[in-house]
Every structure is written in structure tokens, then in C-alpha cells.
Predict the 3D structure of the following.
Amino acid sequence: MRILIIAQPRTGSTVFSNWLSKELNHHWLNEPFNSHIDFEIDKVFVEKNIVCKLIYQENRGEWFYDDRIKTTEDLLSLYWDMVFILTRDDVYEQSISKVWSDTNHKWHVNYQITEEWLQQNKKYIEKYCKELELEKIQINSFHFNQISYEGIYETGLDLLKVCSLVGISKMNYLNDLSSKNRYRGGQIIKNNKLI
């Protein structure tokens, strides 16, 4: 089965796509066009059993780095058994995560946010809130299976939806999606105390 996940940044897409590939025992392609490793990029076109996760950002996707895919339509016209669009309902939390990762040049590590940091970066966070909302409108216009960070990691409703659509009857790696594995967990530190 060929599964494509087009995700906004900071939506838990790396953990989710890795989990899905493990459940299905499929090859995991995590942002292959960002890796610039040719044999990984080629798998987007030829691999039969893959979970391929790509990031959609700044009104375009990472696949634009490859000459074989000129448009989003080119990507979507490749044969996919299933396409998921992953966004996040809480754009403010998403923006905090985006600003933190961009300013620290770290994307997959645990981190903490202080109230002072929030104040220092308030303008950047507000800027990203607007940008991410516009991107969400664009990415949702693709009209594929819409799922959200909250539906996977909080309510679990989208997790059940995904399992039903791809034929997973028993989740063997559910612990991979546990809240204890979140990079931040939504916590803010004020006066040395979590709030």
C-alpha cells in the first residue's frame, strides 16, 4: 500500500508517520526531498509499500525541490492508495512550536517554554499564527482524508479513522503515540514552576 501524508509543520507528523509505517510494516519515507538522498527520493516514485510524509509550508511543499514534480498536482497524480492531510486545530500552540524550533534550529528534541520566552517572541508567534491559518486553508483544499494533531494525540478519533481506512485491526505500537513522547507537552514554566 502506498500512503502519502501531507502535513503542516509541527503537527506531530514525524512520530505519526513513523508509527503508521511500523503498524503496516511498510518502508518509512520521512521528508525524502529534504534529505537530498537520491535513493530515498526515488522510492517516492517506485516503492510499493511506503508511508511517505511530506511537509507543506509557505504555500508550497518540499517536493518542489525535485524537478520531476513541478506542482502539487504532479505529486498527487502519482499513484497513492491513501492520502492524508495532517493539520493542527490549535494554531497558537503550533506557532509556539514552530518559532521555538526555527530559532533554535532543533526539530525533534524535548524542550521547555518559559513565560519570558513567550513574551520575547510574541510578534513571531502571532506572525506564524496568521501564516499557518492561511496554509491550513490551502492544504485542506486538497480534499483528501483530513486528520489533525488533536484527533491523533488527544481524542484519538482520527487515529481510529486512519486504522479503519488502512485496515489496522490491532495497534501494536500505540505507545509510540503516548503523550509522554511529546517534545514539549504543552507546558509553560513560570517562576520555575510548570503551569
Remarks:
- Residues 188-195 have pLDDT under 50 and may be disordered.
